[in-house]
Amino acid sequence: MTLELQKPRPIWQIMFSTHHTDVGLLYLISSLTFLFLGGSLALGIRAELFLPGSQIIADSMTFNRIFTVHGTTLIFLFIIPFASAVGNYYVPIMVRYKDMAYPKLNAIAFWMIPPAGVLIWLGFADFTWYATPPYSIISAPGPAADMWIFGLKILGISSVLGALNFVVTILKCKHPDMSIGQIPLLAWSFLSSSLIIIVAIPTFAAALLMLLTDRLGVSGFFNPAMGGDPISYAHLFWFTFHPEVYVLVIPAIGMMYEIIPRFSRKPIYSYNSGIFAFVMLSIVGFSSWAHHMYATGMSFTEKTVFMVGTLAAVPASAMHVFNFVATMWNARIRFSTPMMWAVGGIALFFSAGAGGVVNSAMPLDFTTHDTYWVVGHFHLFVMGTIAFGSIGYLYYMFPYVTGRMYNETLGKIHFVMSFVGTVLVFFTQHVLGLYGMPRRIYDYPPIPEWIAMNQIATVGAIIIGISMAIFLANMIYSAGKGKPADTDDPFGLGGRYYYPFEAKNPSH
Amino acid sequence: MSQNNSQNVYRTTSSRVGKMLAIMLGICLVGGVIFFGMWDYWISQPAPVVAMMAGEKTHAGPAEATGITITQDLQFLESADFRSLTFNALIDEPGANPTIEMSVGDKVVFNVVNDGMSFHAFGVTKDTEGFAGIIPGSEVAAPTNPLITPVTKPNIITVKIL
């Protein structure tokens, strides 16, 4: 199998192509670029917090701008486009179709990302990735804030267009011989996450529009001085962005479903439970948004409903973990780099989920709310689970995309350093939260425990930073000069892998 | 995906990787030059709603300076139950919340000390009650970077509105 181009072509031809592998390549390169840009901002944040007082960032506003763009970039310009890259490469092949259902729409969805990225990065808004009202309405300076809002609007439209394309490709363009219950779990993950996007994103699109008109002074939806209510923005935001967490994590789990059976050299333990868990996560994702808002004066009944709704995600998540472990049980596992990332991602997924149970249990949430615990929990999901799954899959698809092998030793060093760094940064941030350190602060009092924990977290971030530099060097060098890959079996797993029904379809 | 074996596998070349990197680095460099070259511009304009809430007229000219400077020390205090927040004395004590007489064009210097137990930020508001309508430029600290007890932070404003 190879996902490389049919023949060498000038780069501009790839840029203006509508073929799914070309669009996938564009998604891949842009998402990795934003990974490194957003990651460098994270290093700046951690360096600033190494000690109390101002270290390398001049003032609190610059600090706020940096962490706003850091979060926005890594969520909207790295994780989501990376998933789209994988989906573009693999979904049409998995459903045995020649391309995405709407190739031009697919290219348009990609080309909305660069201008959105430019708006976000040129403005560098300062109101957090949540665009906290009323601050975002009455205090956040323009044009940065307005540029951020427009950037997010564009990204939302891009996501919806991409999601529509995936849904139609999977449901309407799959081979007629293939039932929906036979498509690979990675394709199922894209179907689930795309349906979530279509339902969830329009709500946030409306909220952004309301935020913009509030800033212009023509409405006061979220402006208390004009009779509005910032809490209503919180409802609209979290109605989109709690399900969005599943939009981020479900494709990463789908990628693990590709890697783990392949490197365990066994079929997945339970294909049907994987589908069931994806569908269940898609549904319960909408029953839990207000657990982010326990501290806003909700009634006991409301909090109980959302607590139960949130905990409903636990069995579905546990089914995935059980499925992975059962697949690996007694298997002839080859711990190549992609498998190491996937297994590390499962371990951190379990840890992040355990922390999530604390957040969703309302008596415990009041202890951790708005502290560094939340930062640690969220990052353990996005870095520990989603990025680990994604990076593992990048190593997995690298030989198929470039025709060359990456350096395996450097890949393993990258994993070990990233795993150690992730544990140091984000587990420590959980503890910092229990010590009471609020999130999103530029400076902090010289409390010895806070200083020690922040220093451990910063050292962890530096380790991750070094590992990412190794990763970048490995990718660049290997793409050009790596050993030619055996694209039928690049990882030496024995035998040639076929997707279900693949042998019947010579069109790819 | 199952290609015919007769089809060649084309591999990425060093020059192709180099071109792609050059494009990406070029975009980042141009973007960086634009961003840093216009560093102050991106955060130079308050949202239109700010001026509306502060009652600022669109064509209001700058106040003519009188040359008079009024200095006011403000010690911020909280009651034990945290229900009343005052300056210079608790709410029922003499000297609480001093009145400052000033005219358009006067320079007013506030020396603010946060003597409360918690973090706080201050600003001159158009309204007599509530936190809305903070006049731009009158802020002493900010909710995102509050005044930590007991640090003194001076702030100077020029009075434009009586």
Structural class of chain B: alpha+beta
Please report the two chains with the greatest interface, counting residues with C-beta closer than 8 angstroms to the partner's C-beta. Answer: A-B, 65 and 44 residues
Query: What Rg of chain A do the Cα atoms give?
Result: 22 Å
Q: In the CATH scheme, what's the topology name of chain A?
A: Cytochrome C Oxidase, Chain A
The stretches of 5 or more residues of chain A where confidence is low (pLDDT under 50) are 500-508
Gross morphology of chain A is globular
Helix content of chain B: 10-25%
| Shape type of chain B | elongated
Supply the helix-strand structural class of chain A: mainly alpha
Under CATH at level 1, the class of chain B stands as: Mainly Beta
Average residue pLDDT of chain A = 92
Which tags fit this structure?
heterodimer; A: 508 residues; mainly alpha; 17 helices; globular; disordered C terminus; B: 162 residues; Immunoglobulin-like; 4-stranded mixed β-sheet; 4 strands; 17% strand; elongated
Could you give a short description of this structure?
The complex is a heterodimer of chains A (508) and B (162). Helix content of chain A is 70%, strand content 0%. Chain A has 508 residues and is mainly alpha-helical.
Notes on the protein architecture:
- The complex is a heterodimer of chains A (508) and B (162).
- Chain A is an all-alpha fold.
- Helices cover 70% and strands 0% of the residues of chain A.
- The radius of gyration of chain A is 22 Å and the shape is globular.
- In chain A, helix 2 runs antiparallel to helix 17.
- Chain A has a single domain (15-488), classed as Cytochrome C Oxidase, Chain A, CATH 1.20.210.
- The relative contact order of chain A is 0.10.
- Chain A is built from 17 helices and no strands.
- Chain B is of the alpha+beta class and 162 residues long.
- Chain B has one domain (46-162): Immunoglobulin-like, CATH 2.60.40.
- Chain B has a 4-stranded mixed β-sheet, with no helix packed on it.
- Residues 1-5 of chain B have low confidence and may be disordered.
- Chains A and B meet through helix 2, helix 3, helix 5, helix 6 and helix 7 of A and helix 1 and helix 2 of B.
